[in-house]
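Sequence of ABC transporter, permease protein (Lentilactobacillus rapi DSM 19907 = JCM 15042).
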Amino acid sequence: STVTAQAKTYQIGTDVTYPPFEFANKQNKYVGIDIDIMNAVAKEEGFKVNIKPVGFNAAVQSVQSGQLDGVIAGMTITPERKAKFDFGTPYYKTGVVMAVGKNSDIKSFKQLKGKRVALKTGTAAADYANSIKKKYGFKTVTFDDSNNMYEDVTTGNSVACFEDQPVMQYGIKQGLKLKIVSSPANTGWYGFAVKKGQNTELRKKFNQGLKKIQANGTYDKIVGKYLGNKT
Ligand code: GLN
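Predicted 3D structure, token representation.
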């Protein structure tokens, strides 16, 4: 006979809104590629998750301080973060792009001189923008979530923002009045993260489950549900 262990519940932090990876649907339920992956993996591996949409930076900080067990939030695996977090298997490709207003004439970083650029706190895109800020002479303003950052550009307060390519592309397709004007920089991958040296069992279960849902078609089904089937 089999002994059924009590299913463990893990507290998982995520962004407030980062479509198509996480967002509240019309029923105010959190859905998206990340959320569906997490739920599918949990089901596959027999654990429970409590999804906490606290915002990207807050989720990252909360895992760092041990208040949350893990973060799935379109989080880019970077060398700096690897010093503080253990990442699961990379699951989605990304890169940083610059976006400007739909009718803007700005096409290059050079045209940002003396202008204001909107960034999102604690993100890989903000790190990238800050790394070229001095060279191109622009000013920055930061926001805690992507929507407020986009709005600063669409209202004309800022002339540009820096965001992950898959997220920016999706948002524009959904009607955001922005356009992408640079090719992806600092390309990398999204990964599920736990605090370094902590929650090893959770990370291992995540990897096992991810492998299973990639093999059985669930992963492709999830991505296809939000992005349409790619060729
Ligand atoms: N991929 C970016 C990062 O890891 C942004 C993530 C997000 O805004 N949710 O910093």
